[in-house]
Amino acid sequence: MNNIILISLAGVLTAAAPVIFAVIGETLSERAGVINLSMNGSILLSAMGGFAVAVVTDNLLLGFLAGMLIGALVAAVLAFASITLKQSQVAVGFVLALLCRDLSYFLGNPIMGQSGPRLSSAPMPFLSDIPVLGALFFKQDVMTYLSFLLIAAAWIFIFRTRPGLMLQGIGERPAAAFVRGAHVNRLRYFYTILGGALIGLAGPIYSLSVKAGWKGTISGLDGIGWIALSITIFGGWNPIRAAFGAYLFALLQWLGLALQPVLPGIPAQVLQVAPFPLMILTLLFVNIGNAEWVERTLASLPEPTRRLVARILRGLRATPPAALGVPFETE
Amino acid sequence: MRNSRWFNLTVQIGAVLAALLFTTLVLLATKAPPLEAFWNIALGSVGSWGKFSDVLIAWVPLLLVTAGLLITFTAGLWNIGIEGQITLGAIFTTWVLLTLQDSGWNPAIVITLSILAGMLGGALWAALAGALKTFGGVNEIFGGLGLNFVATALNLWLIFGPWKRPGVASMSGTVPFDASLSLPALPGSRLSLVAVGIAILAIVFVYFLLKDTYFGLRLKAVGKNANAAHLLGVPTWQYMLVSFMLCGVFAGLAGAMQVTAVYHRLIPSISSGYGFMGLLVAMLINFLPIWAAPVALFFAALNIGSIQLPVVLKLDSTLAGVLQGTLVLFVLLADGARQKFIKKEMP
Lengths: 331, 347
Hints:
The complex is a heterodimer of chains A (about 325) and B (about 350). With about 325 residues, chain A is mainly α. Helix content of chain A is about 70%, strand content about 0%. Chain A starts with a helix and ends in a 15-residue tail after the last helix. Chain B folds into 2 domains: about 1-30 and about 315-345, no CATH class; about 50-310, ABC transporter involved in vitamin B12 uptake, BtuC (Orthogonal Bundle). Chain B contains 14 helices and no strands. The radius of gyration of chain B is 21 Å and the shape is globular. The model of chain B has no long low-confidence stretch (mean pLDDT about 90).
């Protein structure tokens, strides 16, 4: 019995891997000041494209690279439209989200339901023999290992390196970063496209591993990008917190399936969307500390209660990069 | 002058041609005959009265949500939660119909009450997104997206739970209502002129609301610069909340029409993506109400016309979405390029 739970939890880590790539890609992009709202379409298109390339070339690596390329291209369109042409990031991103989704269904029609290569798990020698931890962390596939590494790498990069500091700067105070010698718009291009490539990697991780194959509208991928977008906010633009959100989401989805036999009164379709109300609640808690009336209400509470509530809110609170969505002009 | 009408028009026509070219390339990429595909879309939408009445049936909800979205866009708000607002409208309408179907009341009264309930449902769901934004500090895009998923879950739960068909619940929805509880349709068709009339009234109402009223003027001020409007004494958050709820009323009305005029029951995908499509229409017309009706009609025609593509040419019907999306994308890009060009000309 314990074994089954362990295998299921290891499965949760695998299922969360694509979400982690997408969420960290989005975090990098938003840290630089660009909201990539195209994520839902981007993931679908790269899932389809990555699968198609892997089927044709019979090469998994090329499939993953194709996914990255598609994600980077979509992000490049967004960067060009919003940074160079100064169009609304939200408008362009939203259009791309719908357009790429429909493109993936249209272009993917001929390869629908075909069988293709699938990423196999690669247990780590020695490490996989460690009791409990081995089964949980070291009997995964390559992409899941990479997702673990990415969380740490992204956190170190953003908070512990000089370029990472610059990245925070162009998202928080682009004018100040510019004065300090940063090429704000060039860097925004770079991080938007880099983030897009990571988002694009999420697609083939689905179509070549987690939900292998391309099944068109019933692939079960439509909506993932919108969820990843919420998780980015929940993650407060911090890779570790974002990863926690991704694991929480994957865990809740698994619980939804696992609880189905126990709760026969609730249809399966409902349990699968059960994480969303929770997501909204967390979004509310994460954001509510930013609202002005909360401060005022807090001030009227008795001191010990006020301090406790304020501390909880501060712990949960996440403030977006100050220049998120704001174009930068030098003059 | 470069900043002339003709220049703008040329740029816009260029964008439309670019979108057609892109879609043609997409078709060629799948080795499909482009001309035949476009011709089939045309045939499938205006080739016969039956087809065109289907276009009008799709036009009704699309025009209604576009009308609503013009209000939120005027206030500078992105009401992505519109899909959920349509769904809640449909749920409230179904709820009233289920409650009153055996009451023996005059069907006209029952239908009217159910449509009003749908409007209320949409408004309440929109108010939730608005309240999350104004009181909770949750960006309306993320709050709205989350609420869309919740609305879908609620809808599925009702269809598979409390309102399930006797025997086995299924994706085909609830038990259809008695024919007397439908909006009157034209003989031999599903098209209801009442629904078409309501949609036209809605867009006319929004046109005058935004153009000729004090409310519309102040709403524009909120949308252009919320802080300045607030300093000038416009109750900003109240205006935002009201614009959300007004948009929700129209979205709920769209949901009510889907139940009372089209499906005659509640189905899982009752919003049919019309909310997101309405966002595209509103962006394409640059938020000008006067263009809403024709452009929504064109989008509806593309959707209906592409339905026969899988049968005739073995192509996926999402081609309509590809064309719609590229149209909006290229118009946005062209507009950005035009403004950049003008800036260079006149420093």
